[in-house]
User: Fold this.
Amino acid sequence: MLENIEEKVSMLLSYNKDKGTVKPHIMKWKEQYITIQEVTYHHLIKKGRELIHVFHATDGHLDFRLHLDTQTLHWKLMEVSDGNS
Amino acid sequence: METPDLHNLPINPNPPSIMHIDLNSYFATIEQQANKHLRGKPVLIAAYDSPRGCVVAPSKEAKKAGIKVGNRVLEARLIAPNAVVRTPDTALIRDAHVKFNKICRDYSPNVVPKSIDELVIDFAGMDYYLKDRSLTEIAQEIKGRIQKEVGEWVTCSVGISTNRFLAKVAASYQKPDGLVVIDQTNILKIYSTMELTDLPYIKYKNQARLKEAGIFTIADFLQADAEVLKARVFESVNGYAWYKRIRGWEVDAIEFARKSFGQDYMLQKVTRDPKVLAQILLKLCEKMGRRLRRHGNVAYRIHTSCIFVDRTWWHQQKKFRSPMYTTLELFRAAQYILDLRPDEIKKIAKISVSCYDLAPSKSSQISLFEDAENKMRKVSDALDEINNRYGEFVITPAAMMSMDKTVVDRIAFGAVKEIQDLYESYS
Assistant:
């Protein structure tokens, strides 16, 4: 099932200066710590001058769509899915 | 390379130089790439996820189960009860296309998008880029890079041949994840395994025309005289083009200039309510107008059409003396035409609007009401600038209030000119 969440989350992430990549590692959502296993797709969304990094990621059980707003540096969990209808 | 005489034209003996790349089940595959738990499951990308929503792209697992493009979600669920339905993630789809295009551009500057999931690379005269490698080696490398740079779940079928048509035939010949070369050595063998309707652009109408002339197989098609194809089958010079096309000679390397801008919308709920229809039409005109103005054009002609709930179709177009530039000008013209439809009580299922007879906006004819019009144009440009800066539909006409979710963002499958706009927005 796909669920729209749109909630701010806390995020522990790493930045690799050589590859120029940012990778989310641990997300805190609803007082739970979720370890991100893999970022399956990363892309940008432009809304006028607003720039959002979209991370599609999984913890091995669920799929997440995460937004990083480059203006506010807030992370938002947008969607959670278990891959079923 | 010279094309020989049109009579008794041989199969093109030149080495293949055209590569057609087709991303397999694109919308669904990219959704599976982004959402790992969808992989290996029948996934349906539908215009709407409601039971009557139309499936626009089934995944390869869904295709294997028998689900086809055009099935209703309800029908598809009867075929595969475990099918997962999603609506298109337009930002994701566009981004993956841009990555796909970027990879292909590393191999030749002559890369032409044919649709959101297909690109053609022309390697003619590109020895510098080939670096003594065969096109098959390059195709394998591109396939690998797509999986590495776009996503491991994303596969493509590659066709290589002497012209765009045969390269497309080759790409469709082996799906998914195929790599087929068609040249003079194997073309007849490949044709012998195909039906006429397996050829691109030969569907019911063209098949009927061919059958009428006694052409039932691709072998018959190859044997037909160029004059017969011109005079009896296609009744135009298009017959000559087909004569050359199926023999591997290039006739499709033409880029058409933009002649129109258009938008259409399939209503989630059919209606005849004039207020709702006007709101939808206004939003379509706003989207169309934004693109018209971004390209620095005005339009003199508007075409409005609708498909009614009983599947009948109505359309009308009109040329106007004054150029149209602002959303309001386009909307007034489109609404005027829509109001001409004869049967106002019929509910509408789909509404389309397009503007054409384009001219550069700076040189358009000055009207008697120049001052007022110029002011409106300046206001329109200022509104576009605000929307560019803060996002689409930040400022809209009052009539469009409360319709955020109406006329949602969609991707037109074969709209090549829109893809060019996409590259500009990413550059």
